[in-house]
Structures are given as C-alpha cells and as structure tokens.
C-alpha cells in the first residue's frame, strides 16, 4: 500500500483516523501499532514477523544496556550494543545483500552457487537504522530505555515513516510516544502538508517520470544529445519530487496523529556546492551517518588524513545502503570524492565565484550523479552518457527532440520553479497582503488544497504509473 493510492486515501486513512480519535487516549498507541502492522502486512504479510523480531530484539537489548550501565558494567553494556548492531546488520545484510555477494563470488571464482532470490522487505533499510540508533543512544546516555514494548513497537512500526523515512531517532520520538497532544492546528497543518506532498508526488513526479520512462525505451544509439539531457533532467526532477513528496506526506501524517518529525528536504537544488546539497537532501540519512559513523570514527578531530578516510567510509556505506549493486557503490564513491575535493581546496573558490557558476557546477555534478543512480547496469549508464555528448553520431538535436522539449516545456518550468523556495515566498507574500482579510486568505488556501487533492485523485483513478522510487531501498 502506498500513500498515493485510492485504497490508502479513501479507506485505510479515514478508518484509522476515526478509530484512533474515537479510542481512549491510553490505547491510542495500540491502535497505531496494530494499524501500522496492517499497513505493512498489506504488501508483505510474511515480513511482519521480521519486523516484530527486530522490535523484540532491540527492546530487550535496550533494557540490557540500561541495566548493565546502572550497575557500572560498561563492558557488558558495550557487548549488548554490539550484539544489537550485529543482529540488525545481519538481517539487513542477509535480505538485501546476500544475492549481490553470491553473484560476485560466482563471477570472481567461476562457481555456480544458487541465488536465494529473496524479496527485499519493504522499509528494512529505514527501520533497521532506527532500531540500531535506539540502543546506541541509550548507551550514550542520549535516551532512556523504553519499558513498554507496545510503545517501542509503535515507534518502530509507525506507518507514516516506516516505508521510506524520514529516519526518526528514538530520542526525537520518545517523549511524543507517551506525552503527545493532538490539536486541531496540528491536524490541519498535517492535512495541508500531506496534500502538498500528494500533489508533488502524483502531479509532478509521476508526470515527469513518464517522460523519463519514455526516453529510457528509446534506442540509445539513435538518441540525440538533447533527448539524453532531457531524460537525465527528468529523472533528477522525478526522484526529487517523488521522495520529497513522500517525506511531506509522512510528516503530514505524523502531524495528524500528534507526532512532529524533522524536515527531510530543504530545497537541495538551490545548493551552490555538493557539501551544501547533502545538507539539504535526505537530511535524516545524512544525519544518521554523521552521528553513528562519521563522528565515532573521529570526524574531523584527528587530522585531515583521517577526516578524508572517514568521508570515504561514510560515502561508500551511503552508496551501498541505497542498493545491492555496483552502481550505487560507485554513486557513493563519486559524491565522496567530490566532497573530499571541496573539503581540500574547492570550497573557497566556489564561495568566491559568481553565484550562478557555483550553482551550475552543483547541478551538473548532481545530474551526473543521478546518471550513476538511475542505471544499475553500468554498460547502459555509460551508453547513456555517451549519447549525452553525441558519441553515437546521432547529433545534438533532431525533430523528435525538439518536439519532446516543446511538449514538456511548461512542465519543466513548473518543476524548476517548484524545486525552489519561490512558491513558498509568493504564498507568504499573498498571505501578508491578505492579512486584513484573514477569512479570505484561509478560504483561498483551502480552495487551493482541495483543488490539488481533487486533481490528484482524478489522476489516480486512471493511473497505471505510480511508483515510489525509494521503496526499493
């Protein structure tokens, strides 16, 4: 089940909201926990057991860490943390990377070990990181162990951010699990955030995604450079509006139930360096790797050489986290190298350069990164790169490429503007002008939200293309 589906919008969500708000406050976590299990089991009923196992393991380990520390048994507390991390990474590695390792062993040694071909449990990369951070935070003294397994299970299984984040650290949610207060303003704000995310996903990401899918089907040897560039640009917009739209919906749903999650995107395509880009894109993942890998390795405290090493490790792990394929590892290494270059010498020049120069550099660097991300087959990716520079002799432009640009020009303009803060600023300005007519301002805003919801629903009625790109991670 996905958020941008008629089943979710008109059956699941209304039912769970009604049951949740009708129920006494003391059992609302139970409602959320059971409702989240239903949401997860809708697509993968078998793997509910895996998530419950992970929940139980980390709940017990959290209690053990707390007990050992209270007794001054630091070594045993470290052992409990290590045990939790090993079990979690073992589950993630087995289900996500076993076939990748087997296939590479077969290729390297000429063996024929059969692949397991296990389907990837949806959301395992996200909830595994959350449960690992729980025991680590208890050991660090940044969180207290949860003694109610139902409350802890609610944190792990919470359906708004279960499938594709944002990754919510336990310390952020701990107080909200037991002391949150649902308000009309929070609910209304959540509905607004959800509808905006739905529009970004359905009306923008899906529409430009169809353009990318169409270009992918073209013979790359006959593709003019303009078509290839339009295709890569389309993928860049699709993945941004797809994932940021999902994050908006997740944050909005959290608000509806009284939870408050941090933003996961802050207009990353406005960035003027790769360093800045990764402070704005998938913020919760970057924060997780910083807090649990980069800083424990020493961060930037032990000299430039070790800092470069730490960046390399973090970005190799970031790449392979996204998928069990060499292209994802190369994608991580690519951005790691760019970040090292900026750290070593490039950032001062980018800060002194004209704004448009640093912005163009960043966008081009990100686009070439998306090329690695989009093609799991490296030969296909290299072929597409060759087409982008006219390497197959198809030229820069032809009639089909001009038609493709012309028919999608309005959409591309909307996407460019929508990926900046301009719409937000214009809306704030309009609200400021209408501040003396508060009712009119609220009415216009609500009309806009209703229009987005109705148009999105109309799209979904006949839609056959409605993927969430980050579900596979």
From TrEMBL:
Belongs to the membrane-bound acyltransferase family. Keywords: Acyltransferase, Cell membrane, Membrane, Transferase, Transmembrane, Transmembrane helix. This is MBOAT family protein. GO terms for biological process: alginic acid biosynthetic process. It comes from the Bacteria. The keyword Transmembrane helix applies. The chain crosses the membrane at residues 6-23, 30-57, 77-95, 107-129, 223-241, 356-374, 403-422, 443-461. One of its GO terms (cellular component) is plasma membrane. It is found in: Cell membrane. It holds the Pfam family MBOAT. It is a multi-pass membrane protein. GO terms for molecular function: acyltransferase activity. InterPro entries: Ac/AlaTfrase_AlgI/DltB, AlgI, MB_O-acyltransferase, MBOAT_fam.
């Amino acid at each position: 089940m996905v958020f941008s589906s008629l089943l979710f919008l008109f059956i699941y969500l209304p039912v769970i909201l009604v049951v949740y708000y009708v129920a006494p406050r003391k059992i609302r976590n139970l409602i959320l926990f059971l409702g989240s299990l239903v949401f997860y089991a809708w697509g993968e009923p078998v793997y509910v057991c895996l998530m419950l196992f992970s929940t139980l393991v980390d709940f017990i380990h959290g209690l053990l860490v707390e007990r050992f520390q209270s007794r001054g048994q630091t070594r045993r507390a470290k052992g409990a943390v290590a045990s939790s991390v090993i079990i979690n990474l073992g589950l993630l590695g087995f289900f996500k990377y076993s076939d990748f390792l087997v296939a590479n062993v077969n290729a390297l040694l000429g063996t024929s070990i059969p692949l397991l071909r296990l389907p990837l449990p949806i959301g395992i990369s996200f909830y595994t990181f959350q449960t690992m951070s729980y025991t680590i935070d208890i050991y660090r003294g940044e969180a207290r162990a949860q003694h109610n397994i139902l409350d802890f299970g609610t944190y792990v299984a919470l359906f708004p951010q279960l499938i594709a984040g944002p990754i919510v650290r336990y310390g952020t949610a701990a107080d909200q699990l037991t002391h949150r207060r649902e308000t009309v303003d929070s609910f209304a704000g959540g509905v607004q955030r959800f509808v905006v995310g739905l529009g970004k996903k359905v009306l923008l990401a899906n529409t430009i995604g169809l353009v990318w899918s169409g270009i992918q089907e073209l013979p790359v040897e006959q593709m003019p450079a303009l078509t290839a560039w339009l295709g890569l640009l389309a993928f860049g917009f699709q993945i941004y509006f797809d994932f940021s739209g999902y994050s908006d919906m997740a944050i909005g749903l959290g608000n509806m139930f009284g939870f408050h999650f941090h933003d996961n995107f802050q207009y990353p395509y406005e960035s003027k360096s790769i360093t800045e880009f990764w402070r704005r894109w998938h913020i919760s993942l970057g924060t997780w790797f910083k807090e649990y890998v980069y800083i424990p390795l020493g961060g930037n405290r032990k000299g430039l050489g070790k800092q470069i090493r730490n960046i390399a490790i973090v970005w190799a792990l970031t790449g392979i986290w996204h998928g069990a394929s060499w292209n994802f590892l190369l994608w991580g290494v690519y951005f790691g190298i760019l970040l090292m270059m900026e750290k070593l010498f490039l950032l001062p020049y980018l800060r002194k350069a004209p704004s448009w120069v640093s912005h163009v550099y960043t966008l081009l660097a990100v686009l070439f990164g998306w090329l690695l991300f989009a093609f799991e087959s490296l030969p296909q990716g290299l072929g597409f790169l060759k087409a982008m520079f006219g390497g197959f002799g198809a030229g820069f432009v032809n009639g089909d490429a001009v038609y493709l640009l012309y028919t999608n020009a309005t959409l591309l303009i909307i996407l460019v503007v929508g990926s900046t803060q301009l719409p937000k600023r214009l809306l704030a300005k309009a609200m400021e002008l209408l501040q003396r007519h508060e009712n009119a301002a609220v009415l216009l805003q609500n009309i806009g939200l209703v229009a987005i919801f109705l148009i999105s629903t109309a799209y979904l009625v006949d839609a056959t293309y409605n993927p969430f790109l980050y579900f596979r991670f």
